[in-house]
Structure formats: structure tokens, C-alpha cells
Amino acid sequence: MDAKGDETWLRFGDAVKMLKPLGITDQTIRNWADGGRLKSFRLGPDGKSGHRKIALSSVLRELEQAGVTPPVVAGVKLPPKPA
Description:
The protein contains 3 helices and 4 strands, in the order ββααββα. It is of the alpha+beta class. The protein is globular.
């Protein structure tokens, strides 16, 4: 995970690993990122190419809406939701 500003960013593959158990495909995640449903940016010099980074908060929001407890991501256990 990388930090940029106050947001924690996941590699695209880690976002896929988190959302795939919900039946969400790689292409759907790309479409959601391109459409703004998932906060994201690209690492290419023009901002339109290169590897994608997906905001952890966006992925967690999708999991929460689906009623799923967040899994371990990239070997880092996520903090539990506040009671």
C-alpha cells in the first residue's frame, strides 16, 4: 500500500483480491474507477496510462455496502470497524 495525501492507495491487484469474492470482475473495477465510483489515479506521466491505484476507502465502502468484513490486504490486517 502506498500513501498519497491522507488516502491509502492499493495496487489494482490488491483491490481485485478484495472485491473478487463479491463476484466483481477486474473489468468492472476498471469501469468503476474510470466512472468515479472508486477513487483512483494512474501512474503514467499523462495520468491516463500506467498502473492504477485504487483508494482503500472506496474498496472498504463497497465491502461495507455488501455486508462483508474486510479481509487481509497485501499481508496487512485491516483495523476492525469501530463498534
